[in-house]
Amino acid sequence: MNATDLSDRQRDIIRLVEQTGFATIDDLADRFSVTTQTIRRDVNDLRDRALLTRVHRGVRPVDGARPYASRAVEQTGEKAALAREVMRLIAPGASVSIGLGSTPAEVARLLAEAGPRDVITNNLVAASHLWDAEDISLSICGGSVRDRSVSGSAAADFFASYRVDVAVFGVAGVDDDGALLDFRASEVRARAAMHAHARQTVLVLDQVKFHRRASARGGWLWDLSHVVTNAPPPLDLAQKLTAQSLVLAG
């Protein structure tokens, strides 16, 4: 079995635990109106797939980034809505850089049908949506591949060698003070290079990211041209964003 075999309840368990940081077996059983034995089977399966961490009496999110395959099958409708909002910010013919993440990859899928343009990316899933598109001039970062993407110094150098109209990227999380978080310093450096070499920057993220923690930080939420999300950020962060920069999908 793989991540595409997850039940709807298992996907909901993952989302809930990532939002709250911890859930007991009893709480999950009450929430989903099933027995504790059923929840234990669900979470043990998720633990075996490295999608959740089993702890005493409950579960918590896994440490670090989860495999792309498990993220790609979650909230597909929400990701499609977010990608459509991003597309409204990209002018016809505008050159685009695309960073890591399953939602930026969904943006690439829409770009493939949106007319001629230059696209550069280190996201191999995004590239796979584009390399057969006749109107797209596609440049892909070379280097070591991890979780369907290229990061490290190669990615930062790659993005620094271009100047594009719009950079589209995600993050692992947003800290309480508005700092942008990723799981690795190399991912932060690549994102910083995208930001520095784009005329406009678009961060696309679902609301769960406002509650998620990661150890590498760099950049601030309000330094971006646009923040596209599917629910309002926490009030103290939302107050620091302009009406033009915050875009809500839905």
UniProtKB/TrEMBL annotation:
- InterPro entries listed in its UniProt record: Carb_Metab_HTH_regulators, DeoR-like_C, DeoR_HTH, NagB/RpiA_transferase-like, Tscrpt_reg_HTH_DeoR_CS, WH-like_DNA-bd_sf, WH_DNA-bd_sf
What UniProt keywords apply to this chain's record, in alphabetical order? DNA-binding, Repressor, Transcription, Transcription regulation
Q: Give the top-rank taxon of the lineage listed in the UniProt record for this protein.
A: Bacteria
> Where is the HTH deoR-type domain positioned along the sequence?
6-61
Q: Which GO terms describe its molecular function?
A: DNA binding; DNA-binding transcription factor activity
Q: Which Pfam families match?
A: DeoRC, HTH_DeoR
Task: Name the coiled-coil region(s).
Answer: none
What protein name is recorded for this chain?
Answer: Glycerol-3-phosphate regulon repressor
